[in-house]
Fold these 2 entries.
Entry 1:
Amino acid sequence: MLEQYIPIGFMFIVAIIFGIVMSKLSEWLGPKNPNDVKLSTYESGMEPVLSARERVSVKYYMVAMLFILFDIEVVFLYPWAVNFRSLGLFGFVEMLVFTVVLMLGYIYLLKKGALKWQ
Amino acid sequence: MELLIPVIKISVVLGVLLGVVAYTVLVERRVAAAIQNRVGPNRVGWNGLLQPLADVIKLVMKEDIVPKQANRFIHDLAPMISMAIALITFAVIPFGDSITLFGQAIKLQIASVNIGILYILAMTSLGVYGITLSGWSSNSKYSLLGGLRSSAQMLSYELAMGLSVIGVVMIAGSLELDKIVQTQHGWMWNILLQPVGFVTFVVASFAETNRHPFDLPEAEPELVGGYHTEYSGLKFGLFFLAEYTNMVTSSAVITTLFLGGWQIPYIGLAGLPAFWVSILQVLAFCVKVYLLVLFFIIIRWTIPRFRYDQLMNLGWKVMLPLSVLNLLVTGLVILYL
């Protein structure tokens, strides 16, 4: 059963080695003459002001949370979809109820303006 | 012998994939030039055919700059993640039926796992780490904004992507990519059975690969280079390669799910030997994938970029309800037709 995954394991190893070698190549082969200005972060040619690690807009957190909610819905749908034909009408109605409940939540968050970007 | 076959398959597939990706960069530049009425790179080698090699050598010989403020370990790690994930996704794509070589039936697929679709979705969602980590670790405002935008965008479109695949799964009754291709024999391609699912999946693929018109993470006029502003040398090149690899992989996934994979309609009637049928099927798969790649490229050079709020509205208020609706309609049709 699990031996199907052996080639994937090989591929993982090859891909990771390829990534490491490629990302180190210019460090090994390229010139090295760093100076203070070159190593400062880019800010359109001005002196960098403060650090970039400040608070970010709450909108991004909202998107992440809503994503988790809806992604769990999608995960529930996969086994249902595989067995759809054998479940028949009963399975369809069950999933309809589930989806309607979720869509009610979706309409609520649209009304609340959780997805409004200005 | 048992282990030799997968190793050969992996080396061939990775070689072809990287070669195709390197030349796709050149194709994109030539197509862009043609669309903008220029010539494009044609000096290195015959008609510019050695340009990819020249690009790589140039990038290798550049200085590797890591900003002082950056988190060095993650800054190194991020391009590696992007590239490795982009390559690994290809492992479950069936690029042909089985072929008989030296009296042995060989399946033309690196790993035939029974949850192929889930594997692809899982890997594409891991791809967001490379971009987000590179944005955060550079400690530059432009990079951070690019990384944030990209993670929000990829999360939003992953929903539509996951939902539009479900229609295909319902028709095939399996998550195995091989079975999904086999159900699409003749002209029963899923693009005809699932037109809405096809459109939502293609749009979501554009957003997942950060390609135009959804390339807000690296929108030049506002964010300089986006998440890779602070990268140089081959580490910058890796992000570039990863983007093109993702493009090729998404085209392969779209082909497998909706365009019949390696199927050529009614090839069985032509009476060819089985070996040549397999070869033709592999070629058909490559042609379909590359036509989609060309579609990706042409879109990039003809359509203007979205605004960020338009992008989020499209993802959450159009694509999500549309794919849920598509799901319900598919269910009804399967039940009553």
Note: Chain B has one domain: 63-336.
Entry 2:
Amino acid sequence: MSLRTQNSYGSITITDDVVASLAGHLAMDCYGVVDKVPRKFSDTVADLFKINSKSRGVRIVTKGDRIYIDLYVVFRYGVSISAVAASLKSTVKYGLEKFTGMIVEEINVHVVGVKL
Amino acid sequence: MAAAARTASEKYINHAVMKRMVISGAISLDINRAQIDALNVFPVPDGDTGTNMSLTMKSVVNELNNLTTASMDELAQAVSQGALKGARGNSGVILSQILKGFSSVIATSNDIDIKIFANAMKRGTELAYSAVSKPKEGTMLTVIRVMSESALEFSRRPLTIQDFLENLIKSGEEILAQTPEMLDVLKKAGVVDSGGFGLVLFFKGLLSGYLEQEISGAEDYNFSVSTTTIAPDTDDDHIFIDYDSLDDIEFGYCTEFFIINLHKKTTLTDIDKLRDTFNNMGDSVLVIGDLNLVKVHVHTNNPGVALAHALELGEVDKIKIENMLEQNRELRKKMEAERKPVGLLAVCAGDGFSSIFKDLMVDQIIEGGQTMNPSANDISSAIKHINAESVIVLPNNKNIILAAEQARALVPSKNVLVVPTTDIPQGLSAVLSYNPEVSAQDNVHNMNDVIQSITSGSVTFAVRNSEVNGLKIGKGDIIGIDSHDIVTKGANVDKVTIELIKKMKKPEHEIISLYYGCDVTEEEANEFSALTQEAFPDCEVTLLYGGQPLYYYIISIE
């Protein structure tokens, strides 16, 4: 749905789509991330995701001012999966918190493929 | 007209009565401040819960005294603001949150009935829980929660305010007595939660204020778990500090401040983020308030960093940073200075014996005995409370000797010596032979000698049929036991006791000491003492109150 918080002027609302797009951008900028949700990924799951390429592979749930995010990504062959996953987590978490002013409560990285 | 007014005041609280009640609650906390301080064990052993809660309330009273208008709304504001301003320490802050929630609900009506009161307590509980980042059960949170739940229940019945409050207080005392079961730290120290105790006292004060009664002086506090350590009266308040765990301060600076004049762009989320940041750099974190005023409390090793983070949200004010490590060192130094070479610990059953041991300068007493045997843990706890290098332990019962030996392994920091006394008369003689001029080792040596020459026995009733020493004993028979065996039986306590003394007494004995238990009245004991003196004219018979359960008389002959 959307994130919500308040300051002395009034309230600030940010929809989930925005957050998802943002997360998608941040994820692609990470070294070692090649793609999000490969074509071969099961159709039923792919249906649940927005076809919009910017927020593909990103699942967002929001509550109040907290963000819960799942990333489905494809890594480059040869990189350390654990290192890139950790880097991805911290990049997305930091970026989202800085740009939206909200709090990332939980971030999960699902590595669904490896590409050359 | 008067009758109607009376009934109204039994069911409603107006603002004047509420003001009186709150002030009375504050007085109640202040009078008992030292006692609440002495119970403080969680989260750090710095003994100031009572002082913190009392000072928080003093700030409230200040605001109340400055009130000029006569509306519940203004009163509620004064309570809430006063509490927030004066809140200090964990317990003070939680109390202030309870009051904030409470006053937000009572502000809605000029006449408070029990339903509104109960709702106000519920709101207070909600805010109290939300203020603490890691709420723990067994603390004052539990007490206020249970009291609020009971309040809601009671509010459904047609009770008067007085009955309602009395029931509330009773439910508070009940849950308070269970707090040691919920928190190990409390159980080990043998105390209830200090903040919870303060809360119950506060509500008692509210009731006194409602009834326009004077609050009596420091309340007599009764708490019983099967083995309670009773510290003898000393000149200063004996604080229940576990002297061995003073090392455990992980975050050294207790940092408190307000954030005022928050920047326009600061959101509520920023306040949450601040709390998360502090949780990552310290503990005992409290960040409460709204976009007008935020109160912060945190224990951290980087107070400067904490302040810097807060400055991003607005201006900081009333900054108070205390070095807890230094406070700790001072406490330890004081402890070292007051440390004496040898301390004494005795186990006994019976309040009379406890007083006798206390008078003989025993440092700690554990209530134990034939059925209520203290565990090694209980004994080691008591040893830890004695500020001495060596501790001499007198178990006074053969079932406790082993536990006392085990307790030694649990207190490696002290030199623990156990004198294997098998009954209380031996223990008494050991204590009497204590010489502060010689070393602990020598004292133990002397005590071991002395206890050999004590002849002692006791008189009780048989709990089942048995045959011992050629005596056929039926259930309920009165039996006389010397240091090893049952030697006599009968149907009458006095007769059996005299027979027992006859069997134990040797010609060289001169003094017979009788200690009567709680099952014997003073008159009966006096009569019996006279009888005994008649029966043994060549000895001097002394009668003392032992207060022990189960044993009518404990006898010591020398």
Note: Chain A touches chain B at residues 5-9, 12, 65, 97, 101-103 (CB under 8 Å).
